[in-house]
Design brief:
Layout (H helix, E strand, L loop, with lengths): L1 E3 L2 H15 L5 E3 L5 H15 L4 E4 L15 H28 L3 E8 L10 H21 L3 E8 L7 H9 L14 H13 L6 E4 L4
Helix pairs in contact: 2-3, 3-4
């Protein structure tokens, strides 16, 4: 299952999965900051496939702001709602079903900003730190039958080029030993490894040596 707020993008990826790998992929439009959407998403997954073996919580957002005193309450609330509230609800629902069944794996996609926040994405770093706390809490709640892990990512080149440019100017790459952007495919490979082989271990860095 591939889910995000942008259904058309999900459908494009699902079609590629179907074509390249011959797998049944379901695209679903969902905003994980809404618990109703989370509930509907989980229901759709179990209705279609009957089980969930791996849950990857990767939805995230970090709106750009000129200075911290200009962060509105609405902007601030959006950040933990997407980065923290959604993963909590999805993991609570899916993890409970996994624990009652044959087990499974939950992978939370975090950021180096959780442990070493820069001056720009402050609410984002706080939310990701909370996500890593959720990892440990759920690991202790559902383990050992359900494995819950974190991948802590560094700076990646994505379609969000304006923000990536701001990160370059803000010194994010200067904090990185390798001094370069990484590729999202590395996080995907790490997630695949976590899902199949890695036992309970709260964090795996994919961070360019921050």
């Amino acid at each position: 299952m591939i889910a995000s707020r942008k259904l058309d993008a999900c459908q494009s990826v699902a079609a590629e999965v179907n074509e390249r790998f011959g797998r049944d992929a379901l695209a679903v439009g969902a905003n994980v900051s809404s618990w109703n959407d989370c509930d509907a998403l989980v229901a759709a997954a179990y209705d279609r496939f009957g089980r969930v073996d791996v849950l990857v919580n990767k939805a995230g957002m970090s709106p750009v702001y000129p200075s911290v005193d200009q962060v509105s309450e609405a902007l601030y609330d959006k950040v933990p709602s997407t980065n923290l509230k959604g993963p909590f609800r999805l993991t609570a629902l899916v993890g409970t079903k996994m624990a009652a069944g044959e087990g499974g794996s939950v992978i939370n996609i975090s950021s180096v900003e959780a442990a070493s926040p820069g001056p720009n994405p402050v609410p984002y770093g706080a939310a990701k730190a909370g996500l890593e706390a959720l990892t440990v809490g759920f690991m202790r709640f559902f383990g050992p039958k359900v494995r819950v892990n974190t991948i802590r990512c560094g700076a990646f080149r994505t379609d969000r080029h304006p923000f990536s440019l701001n990160w370059s100017r803000g010194g994010t790459l200067r904090r990185c030993v390798r001094r370069r952007w990484d590729r999202p495919v590395r996080a995907g490979r790490s997630a695949a490894l976590k899902a199949r082989l890695v036992p309970q271990k709260p964090g795996m860095p994919v961070d360019g040596s921050f």
